[in-house]
Amino acid sequence: MKSSESSEGSYDSRQLQSKKSNESVFLSQKGNAVGGGTNNVLNALAAYMRYFEGTAHDDWQEIHEKVRASESRNGASFIALVGPALSLGIISRRSVHYEAINYERERNAGFISPFGYSATTIAGAVDAVFSKEWYWLMALRNQTNNDGIHSTRMWKWNGFLIQYTVAGNDGPSVVLVHGFGAFAEHYRDNINGLAGAGNRVWAITLLGFGNSEKPNIVYTELLWAELLRYFIVDVVGEPVHLVGNSIGGYFVSIVSCLWSVFVKSVVLINSAGNVVPSYTYIPLPEDRKTSGTSWLGSRVLLLYLRLRIQELVKKCYPTRTERADDWLINKMLRASYDPGSPVVVESIFSFNLSIPLNFLIEEFREKVLIIQGMKDPISDSSSRVATLKEHCDGLVIKELDAGHCPHDEVPEQVNDILYEWIPRIESQILTGSPA
Fold first, then answer.
1. By CB neighbour count within 10 A (0-12 exposed, 13-18 middle, 19+ buried), where does 170 fall?
2. How far apart are CA 352 and CA 182, in angstroms?
3. d(Cα 239, Cα 236) in Å, to the nearest integer?
4. pLDDT of residue 303
5. Collapsing DSSP states into helix, strand and coil, what is residue 272?
6. Which end of the chain is more exposed for a tag (fewer CB within 10 A), N or C?
């Protein structure tokens, strides 16, 4: 990197630290995001990287306190503190990289070690801007318009790039949500069919999956649900029919429970989440931090998944194994090598599905459709369907001869069900009649 390109961010840290600030560099007293002008952010960046040196300066002490409070996992505090300023363009990725490398040279008598950085804060800053550059370049490459049939677009949420596909020009809006390890194109044979039936279709690739960004943050069910909520508000712009597969079904159920005004109906395709007939209380969510065990476990699990991915995916397509084709396998495998993928896999070890599925959809029951592949290798479909029928009145349940991903294994059957379901709900909404 040429020094002339990064001179905008080249400041002597001693000059920065000598200027006592009467005001906080943070946007709010309780928040962690650094704000203000470029000098403010560079000052905060210098303090962040020198976290392990300590300081007697007031504003740097405040920054160090915020680092401790927001370090939910190694390096995560950089995104929490400086990420918003990067997204707003207050400071550039090149500036961050320049300042980090310059400080690394200061610590090592002018040398850069080939064995890693000398401080986790330096590594956190460099890794974060490298990751952002990676996903920005990939976003530029992947935005397409397929002859007006459907288009692949990017949307920025909380500073992170989210990929989605949209098809159809008018009609009811339908949002398709994939499961863990998948992506928007997992609905490859549903998107155009639903659009052709007179719907506006949006298939989102969730944060942490596919071609969407995979930042160094702690992933939770509520985070993904909030992402969907803002996607509906900012991108779709009207209430939607929410369709979710596997863990994506649990996410859409959370959305329907917390923000029901944005949801017309819920379609759960082999959804995750337990049915608890006589729940007495709903546990409050707790702050989650990663551990050494989850760090190691995620790396081992990711290696295992890469080696066995074809076999594992084919098991989820028991009636039509040919649908687990090379295209699908290669898409999943490619994403597993993206920057940040191990961090996403770590979330498996901290998933909290303790809020019962029947609680989440309780107020929506008459507008909930269950599509269940009865040969799902991941769960006991017969027992699940029986429990739903017994304890969840008003649901519509469709049983299919398929595995964990009926929408992709038998897309024609799932499409036919949705062709009937969506107009039915729309008619009820129009007339005000009950389901």
1. exposed
2. 20
3. 8
4. 93
5. coil
6. N
Rounded to an integer, what distance in angstroms lies between the CA atom of residue 185 and that of residue 264? 23
Question: Positive or negative CA dihedral for 261, 265, 269, 273?
Answer: positive
In our burial notation (b when 16+ CB lie closer than 10 A, e otherwise), range 26-42 reads: beeeeebbbbbebebbb
Q: Do 257 and 363 form a contact (C-beta atoms < 8 A)?
A: yes
**pLDDT value of position 350:** 78
Residue labelled with tokens 């498996």: 348
CATH of the structural domain 147-431, one choice from 3.40.50.360, 3.40.50.1820, 3.40.50.1370, 3.40.630.30: 3.40.50.1820
Q: Record the tokens describing residue 354, joined without a space.
A: 């303790």
- Note every long-range contact of 98-106, with CB atoms under 8 Å and residues 24 or more positions apart, other chains counting: 98/1, 98/3, 98/6, 98/9, 98/10, 99/9, 99/10, 99/11, 99/42, 99/45, 99/46, 99/49, 99/125, 100/49, 100/125, 100/126, 100/129, 101/1, 101/126, 102/10, 103/13, 103/46, 103/49, 103/50
Determine contact, residues 36/3, Cβ cutoff 8 Å. no
Distance CA 162, CA 214 (A): 10
Ranges of CATH 3.40.50.1820 domains, the chain? 147-431
Q: Give the C-alpha distances (Å, rounded to integers) separating 239 from 47, 191, 429.
A: 45, 18, 12
* Cross-strand bridge partners of residue 268: 244, 370
Residue that has been written with the tokens 């964990």 in this structure:
404
The pTM of this model reads: 0.89
Q: Name the burial class of residue 220, with classes exposed (0-12), middle (13-18) and buried (19+) by CB atoms within 10 angstroms of its CB.
A: middle
CA distance 103 to 355: 46
Q: How many CB atoms lie within 10 A of CB 293?
A: 9
* Amino acid 352: pLDDT: 81
Q: What does the pLDDT read at residue 435?
A: 56
Low-confidence ranges of the chain (pLDDT < 50): 1-10, 13-21
> What separation in angstroms does the CA of 93 have from each of 5, 6, 126, 130, 259?
11, 9, 9, 8, 35
Residue showing tokens 């959370």: 254
Phi, psi of 34, rounded to the nearest 5 degrees: -80, 140
- Angle at CA of residue 351, ends 260 and 326, nearest 5°: 95
